[in-house]
Amino acid sequence: MNSVERISILEKSISIKTDGQNEQELAEYFKQILKYHNIESTEIPFAKGRSNLIFSIGEGDRILGLTGHMDTVNVGPLSDWQSDPFVLTEMEEKLFGRGTSDMKGGLVALIIALIELKDEKVDLGGKIRILATGGEEKGQLGSASLLGHHLISDIEALIVAEPSRLSNPKLGESTQFAIFAQNGVLDYEVISKGKSAHSSMPELGINAIDNLQEYMNQQKKYFGNMAQIDDSVLGKIIPVNSIISGGEQINSVPAYAKLTTKVRTTTSVNAEQIINDLEDIIIALNKVADMNLELNVLRQLDPVVTSKDSSIIKLVSLYGPEFFKQQITLRTVAGTTDAATFISENSRMDIAQIGPGNDSSHMANEYIFKQDFLDYIDFIKKIIISYLND
């Protein structure tokens, strides 16, 4: 494909709204393009109007996986955008639109790379499998639905095309990173149950908010201690109390209160340890009269860590300068990707996160540098051929 043809696929993809829904329409568009190039694909629904798309090229026992998600966050107020977020708009060598950076740009680049390798009849030396998922932005629903389909357990290495560039608006340049590790995730809620009473007679009730506050004091002390533990790769845990609610009206003692917390975990301080320790705190508090606390785990994902000496990380570092005109910086991130779900079925595969998107993700006026998008396609083709023929 030439540059115009490549960008036209991204243009159509941006025009299909997939803000937390409707991935099926985008999957069907990709299916049409793939079929035109004699590549069969399989659509795997996970909810009404929502699908994953899976396809492969090549043959052999060695399988290199590539993944990206089709959904985006919503656009927010249209007045904040300088152009229509669903119309790919080029300005100053940037391509603007919702999903350009996170991460239709990366996913479309993966798809184009496979199409071009197929059309060029390249001897791959193995198999490439693309997992185009839905529902990543809100709970990794699509990737979770792929577990058990025997699509992940045989993958040797996985490239995640999530955004991994930092833009520099003043210089009009961007810095390319490769991410070899990401923190795990622990989401949980602590519920405090009390007893309602008239606010003029609080002694007849049990104040659920006060009891929850007592727990929060203990939790703060606990995380203060655990945050001193420095993981050699991922650093320190990052706990954030993100939602708190309780009570019904100002004239009553509150009978219910709830705290919701997110923790970015490490291998040194993992989710299981935190859950056990918090449950011990709750057990001790519940021995006090009128305390009734319970902990519910909402989401748990392990950290993703790949050795810098792995083949996929070495290849990314080796060939990055050829295509991006700069050395590739290896780093870790606190955020999570579909890889965190996939490793529950295949913890052996090496994982590299590298994509053309940047730090405009989730913002109004999201964009991708035009040349970054085009260069990334050629970069991925080089990585595929080199990895499978190593």
How large is the radius of gyration?
24 Å
Give the integer mean of the pLDDT values.
96
Provide a count of the helices: 9
State the name of the first-level CATH class of the largest domain. Answer: Alpha Beta
Classify the secondary structure makeup into a structural class.
alpha+beta
* Helical content band: 25-40%
Which stretches are low in confidence, meaning pLDDT under 50 for 5 or more residues running?
Answer: none
**According to CATH, what is the topology of the largest domain?**
Aminopeptidase
Biggest β-sheet: strands ordered side by side in the sheet:
1-2-6-3-7-16
**Major sheet description:** 6 strands, mixed
Total strand segments: 17
Shape assignment: elongated
CATH superfamily of the largest domain: Zn peptidases
Which second-level CATH architecture of the largest domain applies? 3-Layer(aba) Sandwich
- Report how far apart the termini are: 26 Å
Count of domain modules: 2
Strand percentage lies at 25-35%
Order of helices and strands: HHEEEEEHEHEEEEHEEHEEHEHEEH
